[in-house]
């Protein structure tokens, strides 16, 4: 398709901008989490926190068995930074893959729009033209299904991690917060998680949107120009479910973000009820 349609316009720039934004936000989120942890432990210890106490409280599962040293501290820090960046890059990968595929579908739409605007070309379009359009569309849908087979687990993991973290941050926000860095961290982290979840949902849903975007063009073809290839293409668009999925359990479409929002609200209400029940039990 590269020879026929060319490279997707502005895809490189979009990838660079998204990468810079996601990595920057991930690093800021990590630094704020470290500052939040340090502030909390320092306040709890009467502002006499040591490096050993910080790492011992942050990684108790490790330093309960091995002694603390500079090497183990650097190792734990590197693992933590790596895990935070991997989490961000996981979402970024879904967004970039979705963008590239959606832009390919858009190129088909743009080609049809160009032909329609130049009515003479549209009127004299041969059967081979429509066959090429249908074959290009079919090639993209097959690629989308193959891509989904490889990254559906990543999509499911992305939604699970983001929603779970959102619930945790919302639950923590119910507590009384007096420390300033903790307030900043909770607000930033909550916004960061909403941003990631929204971006993944919108970009992944973009594939489904673009795969059906030129249906109205095909339906507007004059009856004298209607042919078998157009009918086959319309049938394929109607019955093919071109979208990324989370291990086939759900397809990522525009409505997914509303489903995620309603699920977060539902589970948060449950957490609030448990929190109130625990509060009453203490009296």
Automatic annotation (TrEMBL):
Keyword terms, alphabetized: Cell membrane, Membrane, Receptor, Transmembrane, Transmembrane helix
Keyword Hydrolase included in the entry's annotation: no
Family matches, as Pfam families: Trehalose_recp
Compartment(s) of residence: Cell membrane
Gene Ontology terms: biological process: sensory perception of sweet taste
Domain of life: Eukaryota
Topology term for the membrane: Multi-pass membrane protein
Cellular component, GO, one term: plasma membrane
First-listed, main subcellular location of the protein, grouped into a coarse class: membrane
Gene Ontology terms for molecular function: taste receptor activity
Protein family (similarity comment): Belongs to the insect chemoreceptor superfamily. Gustatory receptor (GR) family. Gr5a subfamily.
Name under which the protein is recorded: Gustatory receptor
Native species: Dendroctonus ponderosae
